[in-house]
Design a protein that fits this description.
about 25% helix; alpha+beta
Length: about 280
Amino acid sequence: MSTVDAAIGDPYRARVVDRSVVVDQPGLRPVVKLMFNLASEGNDFEAGVDIAFRAADFGDEAAAGGLRMYTVESVGRVPFEDSIDVTIYVRAHSDGPESSVARRLCALDQGESVSLYGPFPYPFYPPMGSRSNMVLIGAGCGMVPFRWLVHRLQARKLDWMGKVLMVEGSETGLEHLYLNKHGADLDQYFDQATQHAFDALKTRYSAMALDGEQGREANMAALWRLLGMGSVYVYVAGYRAVAEALDDAMSRHLRLTGRWQETKSTLLREGHWLEYLYD
């Protein structure tokens, strides 16, 4: 779910061999599970890497936007063929433009083909130690891009000792705590394994936030307190415009000229601020 503008390479021609709807509930964004078959040509496709699609490749040359990334859920080798089956989840965006990649992918039927780019490395790596603090910010996209990050944390089987703040929102990414409610947030976690992985991090909320109704100002204060504790990793995914609004909101919140940008620059320099943004 980022924009890639250079060195993307030639696309693969991928055919849809299986399609199913895994989330179809009133009030939730539908989630479609797609399996693509393609000749891998020796490239290293595996679960946890990213593949990408481009709006212009769906027949609308005027379609705007770069590549849209999706993390691979699983990869299977096809017996007696030099090909693989690659599975991804796509969350539909009913409020997005008709030409959006998500809507185009969700409209694909079994047997149809599409241009597929990749593989690309997943952009988020977990902290090395279990005492680091973490902030996950869904900038208009919710927690979906962090699914594989929490899976990787869960795979370490560590008792996470650091503090965690998971927030999301469509204006600045800081409007709401991510509650990970069973069923109600199914279009964010997709399956029980991911829900449990998010829940394991959510147990660290008590150190930073009291409830899910506190709002943006309280979340900004919690974020700033956490950044002051040191050893913090900040992960931001979503729309570039929302991430820019986050910077503006935090600068106004601190009321100290340059303080937010100075703090963010330090985190970027140390590899503790990781972004996954698209237009």
